[in-house]
Amino acid sequence: MRKVIVELNLPDDQAIPDSSDIVRLTDPNWMSEWWHIDDVIEQAEPENQLTEDEAKEVLMLMDKRHDCHYGHTWDSMDSAIDDVVSRRK
Q1: Is the pLDDT of residue 42 over 90?
Q2: CA gyration radius, the chain
Q3: Are 48 and 85 within 8 A, CB to CB?
Q4: Residue 45: which region, alpha, beta or left (left: phi > 0; alpha: psi -120 to 50)?
Q5: Cα–Cα distance between 54 and 79 in angstroms, integer?
Q6: What is the spatial distance between Cα 28 and Cα 58, in angstroms, rounded to a whole number?
Q7: What residues does each domain of the chain span?
Q8: Quick check: 71 and 33 in contact, CB under 8 A?
Q9: Where do runs of H (alpha helix) occur along 1-89?
Q10: Which of 35, 57, 75, 78 has the fewest CB atoms nearer than 10 Å to its CB?
Q11: Buried b (16+ CB within 10 A) or exposed e, 78-87
C-alpha cells in the first residue's frame, strides 16, 4: 500500500473530506454524478431566478429525494426548484 499526502485548500466552512471520499474520487472503479449550483441557476426559468442559497437548497432537496432507479435528473431538479420557489410566496 502506498502512502500519499494530499493538500487541499478548503473554504473555512467546508468540512475536511474523509479519506474514503478521496479514494472514491480517484479510483476508476467508482462513478459519480456532479451537479453545481450554476446548473440549478441556469435551469430555473428567468422569472424564477434563484439565489446561491436557494440553488444549494435545490441540490439538498434533490439529494434527499434521490431515487436510485432514476438518479438525479433535470426533471427532479425542476421539481425541487418549483418547491423552493413556492416557499417564497
Answers
A1: yes
A2: 16
A3: yes
A4: beta
A5: 13
A6: 29
A7: 33-88
A8: yes
A9: 19-26, 37-43, 52-64, 74-88
A10: 75
A11: eebbeebbee
d(CA 76, CA 61): 9
Of 54, 60, 52, 62, the closest CA to residue 85 belongs to 54
pLDDT: is 32 or 70 the higher one?
Answer: 70
> What nine digits make up the cell of 86?
413556492
pLDDT at 31: 80
d(CA 60, CA 82): 14
Closest of 39, 41, 44, 46 to residue 72, by C-alpha: 39
Q: How far apart are CA 56 and CA 33, in angstroms?
A: 16
* The three three-digit cell numbers of residue 40, written as one number: 440549478
